[in-house]
Amino acid sequence: MIAITGATGYIGGLLCAALGRRGITVRRLSRRPEPARRDVFFALDAPVPEDALAGVETLVHAAHDFRPAREAELRRLNVDGSRRLFEAAHRAGVRRVVFISSMASYEDTRSAYGRVKWTLEGDVAAAGGVIVRPGLVFGRESGGLFAALDRVIRLAPFIPDFGPVACLHAVHAADLVRVIEVLLAPLGAKVIARLSVAHPQRLTMRRVSEVIAEAAGRRPRFVAVPSRLALATLRALEGMGIHPPFRSDSLVSMLHGNPAPDLDPEVLGVVLRPFTAETLRQ
Question: What pLDDT shows up at residue 65?
Answer without folding.
Answer: 95
